[in-house]
Protein 1
Amino acid sequence: MGVWFPDLRDRLSAGDTLDEAMLNAPEVLELWAEAMIESGQKLPPPRSLTELKTDSEVAQDLATFMVALIPFPAGLRQRAAERP
């Protein structure tokens, strides 16, 4: 099973079950964000579900598959904002 992040190209969370993939998803977000921060890149703002539905590259997938919101790891956006 897998969890796909439409705002993060080529980032997936996987598991033997959907529950396991969902439990692994925050770690994927955290690792991605830490790599962005460490390399001096800015974290892009997340798009809303409404915005994603208007994106022709992801709209069909959103209409076909289950949508789940994965919370962004606490403190990482603030840490990114504090970096010079």
Protein 2
Amino acid sequence: MAAQMAVVSVTSAGTAVRFTATPTPIRRLTIFSPLSNAGPYQYVGGSDVSSAVYGAALPQDGGGPVVIDFAPGTGDLSDFYVDADTSADAISYVAVLV
């Protein structure tokens, strides 16, 4: 079982950043909010993610983890985006690959 780990930074608050542009089938995704974020929140969701539309909101004080398990053949890392209230905030993730 292989895993992929990365940090995804939001360069400009209010602009969604894709986890990866490369299709990457996954079995599980675990998302964390690093303690170094200025906050107050980081938002994870689809391409339309924002402070008003999101799947998960992680607080800046090390929120998480958020764990998502996928049925075989249904999860793809390239479907996930992050946005934040503060520029330069980030999330980190660990993805278990198929």
Protein 3
Amino acid sequence: MSISPEQETEILAFLRNLSHELRSPLASVLGYAELILMSEDEISEEVKSHAQAIYNNGNKLQELIDQIQDYRHHMESGDPL
């Protein structure tokens, strides 16, 4: 598939914005989940279990965002994947 330089510029801008827009709220979600998990207050096992699920899945999402970022860098540098 061949794309024009204008399309490539738009794709790169989209990937850059996507990565940035997802990272900021994800950092907050992961931070709050981590605070719950590290809390010394009395927290039910159910809440801890939910916080652990949020934290684990947030980290999976972070890995996907990192892959998008890596792909964008490859596109910008012209390196093959």
